[in-house]
Design goal:
Elements lengths: L11 H11 L3 E3 L6 E3 L1 H20 L3 E2 L5 E3 H4 L3 H7 L4 E5 L2 E3 L6 E3 L4 E8 L4 H11 L8 E10 L13 E11 L2 H21 L6 E4 L11 E8 L5 E11 L1 H5 L3 E3 L5 E3 L1 E8 L1 H10 L16 E5 L4 H20 L4 E3 L7 H10 L4 E5 L1 H5 L2 E6 L4 E6 L5 H25 L1 E3 L3 H9 L3 E5 L4 H11 L2 E6 L7 E2 L6 E2 L2 E5 L3
Parallel strand pairs: 3-9, 17-18, 17-19, 22-23
Antiparallel strand pairs: 1-2, 4-8, 5-8, 6-7, 9-10, 10-16, 11-12, 11-24, 12-13, 13-16, 14-15, 19-20, 20-21, 23-27, 24-27, 25-26
Helix pairs in contact: 2-6
């Protein structure tokens, strides 16, 4: 059995790292800053992929795939973009190795230097817009709605499994439109898809808004985002959608003939979510006993565990569990029987609790004789003995739906209780030290934003959409302000 997890309230960071490893989601790899996503962790990511991919396709997007390598000159074409990513780029300079003449393995062949270095993609705007130039000639080619599932590399010095790694998995959407209004509508549509997915599939409430100019994606005119609160009160950016204007179209000369037969530059968006959502999932719901997975996302929703002492008892219990398994599976539930005879029932209980399975049904000889079964729900830790004939699809659906809703309600309660409105800087600093979300006035300048970050480590997470206009004074400079913005420490 895995060693006991650290307590969240004693060392949240260590608790998170240990939980990721002990629950078999991921582990550190031999490549510094990179991780191995293990089968159970990847199964959760696959569920995320499947659900999001369906939502994208329902709104007219198509999947494609673009090269991992980007010519260095491409990044130079959009000034803000290259400035934003230059310090994070991995660069390929040679295309061949050779045996070391001194017998020390292999070395880079100096004669294999590339004429132009290649960048391992940190994001794909440049290579995709170079391609879009060939795909777009007329208004009839628009809108062009493309998504790709891929890996990217952003060189990180300080890494944490799922939250920040040198290589990570994501989806990145890239679209081209005939007008600015259409592109802005697209960026906002995607943000709504992200918010719906995170709230209704991951059971995590989010705050929707725009980023400040300082926090925008490199090369964007506007960045829309969803921000989520983790159990420790820190923020996690759960998804972003960018209105790119015509910056990339002009950089790569992507024009189209409009209905008046005039050439115009297209308008662009890009958007993405990544395996950071795995980190959000873990830190939003899990407890000191392990993961807690929302039923809609869990690769296994129900685990069936037989309890027996003799071979005869084993046969009788398993015969009933196999009938239950088929009934549940035929109703579309993701269900598994753990009949591993090398593990005692208590060990199995702890293992599946650690892995966050929403429902556990345990059946032993006494239960069989009494026509009953033990039901355990992971979110509340509640056990109940129910008549086995009650274990029908409607009852199981009701339980799973209740778990899904309960996780959201608990997270929403935390968000509401730890969001504080302040008017004075001392109050602000005190609230930030307590790891709260802080709604405060800001004078709108990057200088003040950076000063507050330097003094408190808090950043402006977003300017919330639903923020009412409110005349006030900046919490740091006392200059006039039109509305409050959301500050927090963040991952």
């Amino acid at each position: 059995m895995s060693k006991k997890l650290p307590k969240r309230n004693e060392n949240y960071s260590e608790w998170y790292q240990e939980l990721v490893i002990q629950s078999d989601l991921a582990e550190h790899s031999a490549v510094g800053g990179c991780m191995v996503i293990k089968p159970y962790g990847y199964a959760i990511w696959e569920r995320m992929q499947q659900i999001l991919d369906q939502k994208f396709k329902e709104t007219g997007h198509q999947n494609a795939y673009f090269p991992l390598f980007i010519p260095k000159s491409f990044l130079s074409k959009e000034a803000q973009h290259v400035e934003g990513f230059a310090k994070e780029c991995a660069v390929v300079t040679h295309h061949r190795l050779k045996n070391d003449p001194n017998g020390k393995g292999v070395i880079v062949d100096p004669d294999a230097k590339l004429e132009e270095e290649l960048i391992v993609r940190p994001t794909s705007e440049t290579i995709i817009w170079n391609t879009f130039k060939k795909w777009i000639q007329s208004y009839r080619d628009l809108p062009l709605l493309i998504n790709q599932w891929a890996n990217v590399v952003r060189w990180e010095m300080r890494t944490r499994l799922f939250l920040r790694t040198t290589e990570f998995l994501w989806q990145e959407g890239h679209t081209a439109h005939a007008t600015a209004d259409e592109a802005i509508a697209e960026a906002k549509l995607i943000l709504e898809i992200y918010a719906d997915f995170v709230e209704n599939t991951l059971s995590i409430p989010v705050i929707k808004g725009t980023k400040t100019q300082n926090e925008r994606f490199a090369g964007a005119l506007e960045t829309y985002c969803i921000e989520a609160m983790m159990q420790d009160g820190k923020a996690l950016q759960a998804g972003t959608s960018h209105f790119l204007g015509q910056n990339f179209a002009k950089a790569f000369d992507v024009q189209f003939l409009n209905k008046q037969n005039q050439l115009e530059y297209v308008w662009a968006t890009s958007w993405g979510v990544s395996t950071r959502l795995m980190g959000a999932l873990i830190m939003s719901h899990s407890d000191d006993n392990g993961l807690i997975l929302p039923p809609q996302l869990a690769p296994i929703q129900i685990i069936l565990i037989p309890i027996y002492k003799t071979d005869q008892e084993h046969q009788e219990v398993m015969a009933k569990l196999e009938i239950l398994y088929l009934q549940l599976k035929n109703h579309g539930f993701r269900v598994k029987i753990d009949d591993d005879d090398s593990k005692r029932p208590g060990w199995k209980f702890a293992e599946w609790e650690l892995k966050g399975i929403p429902l556990r049904f345990a059946l032993g000889p006494k239960d069989l004789n009494n026509h009953q079964i033990e039901v355990f729900r992971r979110d509340t830790q509640e056990k109940a003995i129910i008549p086995i004939e009650n274990l029908v699809a409607n009852y199981v659906s009701m339980l799973l739906n209740d778990i899904q809703k309960n996780l959201f309600v608990l997270a929403q309660k935390r968000l509401q209780e730890r969001t504080i409105f302040v008017n004075h800087y001392e109050e602000f600093k005190e609230a930030i030290e307590k790891d709260c979300f802080v709604m405060a006035h800001w004078d709108g300048t990057t200088e003040t934003e950076l000063l507050i970050k330097e003094e408190t480590k808090a950043t402006i997470r977003c300017i919330p959409f639903n923020n009412p206009k409110e005349i006030g004074y900046c919490v740091r400079t006392n200059k006039p302000s039109q509305q409050r913005v959301l500050f927090a420490k963040a991952y």
